[in-house]
């Protein structure tokens, strides 16, 4: 059984993709803005899970770039691997368990995500947004 997840730091012209989980979602961060992530399923590679997850959550095709770092989710105890990703378009549409989605300037990420989201980030991700 795979016990890891991936997070996609999706870049487009200096902006980063954020999703807002539905308030009625049973998942962690319900009603909060967050960096999109996905559980790796079956024999998927990290790249396959990133491509599938961002397509499901934002109706967006991405290119997966470099690995940024990893940490352990405090709620699920699964490893979360973070990747820098890129979009060729600004057009997005919320899907999956999201009620909203938006692009935020990279400099505003730390003010746009709640403290519960940010405390889950490994040090490399905090550094990436400083």
Write the layout of secondary structure elements.
Layout: E1 4-12, E2 15-21, E3 33-34, E4 37-39, H1 46-58, E5 62-72, E6 79-87, E7 98-105, H2 109-112, H3 115-118, H4 123-128
Descriptors for this entry?
single chain, 130 residues, alpha+beta, seven-stranded mixed β-sheet, 4 helices, globular
What would you say this structure looks like, in words?
The protein has a single domain, classed as Nucleoside Triphosphate Pyrophosphohydrolase. The model has no long low-confidence stretch (mean pLDDT 92). Strands 1, 2, 3, 4, 5, 6 and 7 form a 7-stranded mixed sheet that branches. Helix content is 21%, strand content 38%. By secondary structure, the protein is of the alpha+beta class.
What's the CATH superfamily, by name? Nucleoside Triphosphate Pyrophosphohydrolase
Unreliable residue stretches: none
* Helicity range: 10-25%
Question: Architecture in CATH?
Answer: Alpha-Beta Complex
CATH topology, which one?
A: Nucleoside Triphosphate Pyrophosphohydrolase
Largest sheet: 7 strands, mixed
End-to-end CA span: 35 Å
The 3D shape can be described as: globular
The helix count comes to 4
Radius of gyration: 13 Å
Taken in chain order, the helices and strands follow as: EEEEHEEEHHH
Oligomer: single chain
CATH class type: Alpha Beta
């Amino acid at each position: 059984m795979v016990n890891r997840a991936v997070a996609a730091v999706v870049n487009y012209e200096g902006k980063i993709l954020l999703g807002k989980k539905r308030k009625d979602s049973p998942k962690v961060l319900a009603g909060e803005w967050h960096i999109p992530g996905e559980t790796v399923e079956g024999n998927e590679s990290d790249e396959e899970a990133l491509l599938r997850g961002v397509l499901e959550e934002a109706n967006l095709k991405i290119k997966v770039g470099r690995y940024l770092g990893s940490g352990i989710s405090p709620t699920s105890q699964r490893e979360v691997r973070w990747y820098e990703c890129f979009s060729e378009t600004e057009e997005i549409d919320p899907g999956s368990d999201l009620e909203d989605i938006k692009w935020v300037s990279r400099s505003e990420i730390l003010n746009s995500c709640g403290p519960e989201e940010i405390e889950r980030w490994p040090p490399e991700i905090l550094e990436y947004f400083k």
